[in-house]
What we know:
The protein is mainly alpha-helical. It folds into 2 domains: 20-220 and 331-354, Citrate Synthase, domain 1 (Orthogonal Bundle); 226-325, CATH 1.10.230.10. The chain contains 16 helices and 3 strands. The model has no long low-confidence stretch (mean pLDDT 96).
Amino acid sequence: MSTETEYRPGLADVPAAKSAISFIDGKRARLEYRGIAVETLAKESCFEETAYLLLKGELPTQKQLAEFDSELRQRRKIKSRLKDLIKCMPEHGHPMEALQTSVAALGMFYPCRDVSDPAKNWDAALRLIATLPTLVAAFARIRQGDEPIDPRPDLDHSANFYWMLFERVPSPAIRKVIDAALITHAEHTMNASTFTCRVTGSTLASPYATIASAIGSLAGPLHGGANEEALSMFEQISSVANVKPWFEKALANKAKIMGFGHRVYKVKDPRAAVIQELAEHVFAESTRPEKYEIALELEKVAAPVLGSKGIYPNVDFFSGVVYESLGIAKDLFTPVFAVARVVGWVAHWLEQLQDNRIFRPEQIYVGQRDVAYVPLEKRP
Ligand code: ACO
């Protein structure tokens, strides 16, 4: 039995699994997927290749990549009855709730309750990665009264996602921004949603139930939901001139700056730097949006104060400003994150199954013991 001294709130620094998928050095701002720096992948790779790397452990040959890409393209469509189900969802519901529901429902269309067959597991892994963009885009369209747009097999993963959202093919520059953002968000060691995924997977639940539970975990404002919260914060600040007084008030109220801080990084999140580079790229041809100027000013004002505690911008600080400039609605930012992170979740699910033991940690009981039952009529 654990003792009080062993208890670490939030399981801080407690290893929950052995994993070969990604690595973080939180002091050196280093994130590697299967040993390769995320910045390199964001520049040189594409989403499909990075997904293959994360799932299989090494970069694909040209033939392997072509086959993998084709397998994904074949699994993008969703059943018309699943579209009907999405049509029944309340249009004001949050898209993360819609996504979690849709992914759980996907498991009813493609049952995979026995996870002992590697071929069936691989099929489910590909289907989840291929289908999440279709589900996100379908809800986004349906809630505004439009029909969902069918995926286009001639477009790559990122371009097709944009197509299904806007019925427009993105320019090569925009496609690259989306692709790099998806690569940057694809995997991140034992974060809350990945841990959730491994816990659910460890019960031998279906991959669809497993990924649905991870989506629920990602939705929270302390995790993936922070990208939406960060943009709302910039909206609330409303001008560059208001940054300093707003921050001083927030500090006095012990409020958290959304998009700042991380359990592992004690320096600026390397992904925030990649996203910031993308932002500069997107804004190079236009005037920078005021929210981006607010973000830069807030970083300038907050980093010297919070930096002494190792609190710096994380990936969610700049991503929303970039997504908004691409025309993506604020409440779709976290679903876009899920479209990327499903790769990491699936990689962890497959890794968990290789050497599975159900998660069943201990607790420190702090309640009463041996309490007598008082019949209802005798209670005061
Ligand atoms: N703004 C101000 N202070 C902060 C912030 C922040 N964003 N984050 C942490 N702190 C402070 C806390 O108030 C606390 O101070 P104290 O010791 O004086 O009480 C100290 O730093 C430790 O904070 P915890 O919340 O205990 O740190 P933890 O490691 O548990 O949490 C987390 C990490 C959840 C990311 C936290 O930094 C946070 O809430 N950030 C804002 C939300 C956010 O941006 N989340 C996205 C993370 S990245 C991702 O999930 C994709």
